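Inputs:
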Amino acid sequence: MTDKNVYEGGCSCRKVRYRLNTDPLIVHACHCRQCQRVTGSAFVMNALIEKTEVELVSGEVANYHFADTIHTAFFCPECATYVWSEYKSGRFDDCWFIRVGTLDEPDRVPPGVHIFMESKQPWVIIPEGVPKFERFYRISDVWKQPSIDRMGPNWSPPIRT
Ligand SMILES: [Zn+2]
Ligand SMILES: [Zn+2]
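Outputs:
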């Protein structure tokens, strides 16, 4: 039984194990074409969290940078399960994007926002009350204040309008 604000996860072969030491900042369900292709699925679920809050408990991760993108994916070299990503946009360089499906209890972190609805597969129905955007969104429109505060006073994106 894990603590309330601790989340454990890992790859399919269990060589890579990791721990999140606090709640995610936000959980994205991304319906963009790249995420669909990389996951082979309808959308990816990424839990954004500060890199300092993620511990690699065992194993090691290899990485792959997708050419002409800001996306680098990190994966288990044994079983090739993607466990997290980095998006070097200047906004989220200090965060890992944790693949929610690799958590031991993925049900604990449902999507907080759906993005890139413009390429959402038509059979995917988004529940009422969950914010959704054609592409991306303004942080201050979606994130709860404690998450914004966690990014620190010098965070570069326009966090307030
Ligand atoms: Zn593995
Ligand atoms: Zn995407």
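Remarks. Residues 11-13, 15-16, 76, 78-79, 81 surround zinc ion (ligand 1) (CB under 6 Å). The longest strand covers residues 44-50.
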